[in-house]
Amino acid sequence: MKKICLCFLLISNFLIAQDLKNAPYKNSELSVDERVENLISLMNLDEKIGQLTTPLGWKMYSKKAGTKASLSELYKEEIKNRHIGGLWGVLRADPWTQRTLETGLHPKEAAKITNAIQKYAIENSRLGIPLLLEEEAMHGHMAVGTTVFPTAIGQASTWNTKLIKEMAQAIALEIRAQGSNTAYGPIIDIAREPRWSRVEETFGEDSYLIAQMGKSIVKGFQGDNESDLKTKKHVAATLKHFAAYGVSEGGHNGAAVHIGERDLFQNYMYPVKEAVDSGILSVMTAYSSIDGVPSTAHKSLLTNTLREKWGFDGFVISDLASIEGLLGDHHIVDTEEDAAAVAMNAGVDVDLGGNGFDDALLDAVKAGKVSEKRIDEAVKRILAVKFKLGLFEDPFTSEKEAEKLVRSEEHIELAREVARQSVTMLKNEDNLLPLSKELKRIAVIGSNADMQYNQLGDYTGPQSEDNIITALEGIQNKLPNTTIDYVKGTAVRDTTQTDIPAAVEAAKNAEVAIVILGGSSARDFKTEYLETGAATVSSKEDEILGDMESGEGFDRSTLNLMGKQMELLQAVVATGTPTVLVLIKGRPLLLNWPAENVPAILDVWYPGQEGGNAIADVLFGDFNPAGRLPVSVPKSLGQIPVYYNYWFPIRRDYVEHDAKPLFPFGYGLSYSEFEYSDLKLSTSGKGQNTKINISLKVSNISKIDGDEVVQLYIRDMLSSVLSPVKQLRAFERVSIKAGETKSLQFELLPKELSLFDAEMIQKVEAGEFKLMIGASSEDIKLETTFEIPETITISN
């Protein structure tokens, strides 16, 4: 009898295996929906919940200095016991992960490990489901040996969406070449709070500019068509952070957000909607709360708005440990089981970190707190993305191609071009810039003149010294026959490393002093980190303070240059030597004294690995700067928040100074001079088909070829609810040769003129609108008005 039962069992297992081998989900000729439906019908509850689990990836391989990397025992246990559906940051390297140049994975090794990870998952799981391998990617893939581009705030300063799309394509190619398939970006948080530690990760203060940059990242990552995802040149994009993360109370990272429903939808949700309409495949929740509801538990936004109203069909993933945060941070539940249930029922599909769902979610299902139908819904969304990426057909990559494609010469040159276009000239008194290449002696001074990691920004992997060009090195490369005296003078924060007399002496002996100051998001291996990866600002009296004063977890209570940097700058200026200030930093700082006393100022944010060459190109006239500020620069801390598109009424001045920023949104100078003329406007169509067609001419009236960033703003002259004093609604960076005139055309659609009325209905109200075109939000060159004859309701 036992022999008969054993034989029957063996035959049954064989038949099941045969059925799985020929299961419809393995047929690439079927539609994604058909394959998903078949696969999920074969899965048990444990396997389904496993698909919603994304643990920390760098723990899934073992490597010590001087040894080859191999799969860790932990990874094998995760596949066997938890049936995981993805990994986050397999290739991530930084002080938090403790992955260094020696213990992290270089591109060829990365491809080998990701191939091994996928092979093991497919061969050692019942259904052979490949993994989503998700990576940080906003200014380059956060891994060893990749290309480091300027951070997002610098990307936005280019005002060049085509260039940023090209950059995103390069990042996607590097990620996919190493075997990962999902990228975290774009970040669409609106930065109206400069004390907040993550301003550098944003595209600035304006929802329209953010939306345009965000769409460029989505298309660059994912391709123009869904079929592009299978070409192994593109990745699934993940929008973050949903929603309104960047304006937390007091600038505290992850703290409560206090905004009204109209402001939320008019501004903060606008770039999200644009990304959804662009086909983004994933959305990440935020650590913060909105009006008392944590983002990871916000059913009204995650389900009612994102899913039902906007039709988003990708998956929602929690930010790292934000599901557990419902219990430990927000205190809205009292058990892990309830935290999992609340997040899942609100609309969160996937747990980043692997500790929020898992057994807690399984218990919630068994207790009837979460339906298996809801589990199926979440799993289907994950599986659909895997099918769209072509992972079931071929999840592997070429080790040789990885070595060839990652950090290629083309990508290095692209990093330099993005950095050049991001440089914003804030002041150029008496045309001090560009500097002559015939100078015999130059002093290069400052905390950030020759600090590699200080110019790279947060979310950056460890770097080989040869990969990064500092400002000092860029200047040396540009002027090999000039005497260049370098004196650091002081550090960003620490005051024990200060030698101002040496800096003064170097400036006195030089024809020009280039002072390079600012901030830093450079992490080190001594920094302490929270579970989420954010840094902990130490209160210990360290002998030497690290430079880091920005980057996740480093919120500020002031916006002054830290340490003795201002004292250094003042001492150099006092020598009488012509002085150029270059700012390398991650957030707007108070620049009142430099703006009044330093003849030339360049703002380069964190310019990436080619930053030094880009700075030198601008300083010495090989590139004409045309960067524009994506944020307003305040005059004082008491002005905050200061942003250009506030609602009426017009702001009153303070007792101490006026209400205007020191440098306004959209501001930036050039070596060229431009003139605007011939503004023409016509209206066509009716209702939702209405179009406002605008044309104008821009002439370069100087003798230097250059780029101009033409900015179009509107104002609703009479509205039933408050509306902005002005609102960016189009822009174009255009190259114009000396003496040349170019014609530009813009088109406005009803949604760009709309507001949310008292009943929260999105509409364009009939009436007069003012059109303003210029070189910044304050430098308006041309203006006119137009009429919308009838109210237009916007259908979503």
UniProtKB/TrEMBL annotation:
Q: Where is the signal peptide?
A: 1-17
- Enumerate the Gene Ontology biological process terms: glucan catabolic process
Q: What keywords appear on the UniProt entry?
A: Hydrolase, Signal
Boundaries of each Fibronectin type III-like domain copy? 708-777
Q: Which GO terms describe its molecular function?
A: beta-glucosidase activity
Instruction: Say which family it is in.
Output: Belongs to the glycosyl hydrolase 3 family.
> Know the name of this protein?
Beta-glucosidase
Q: Which organism is it from?
A: Zunongwangia atlantica 22II14-10F7
- What taxonomic lineage is listed for the species of origin? Bacteria, Pseudomonadati, Bacteroidota, Flavobacteriia, Flavobacteriales
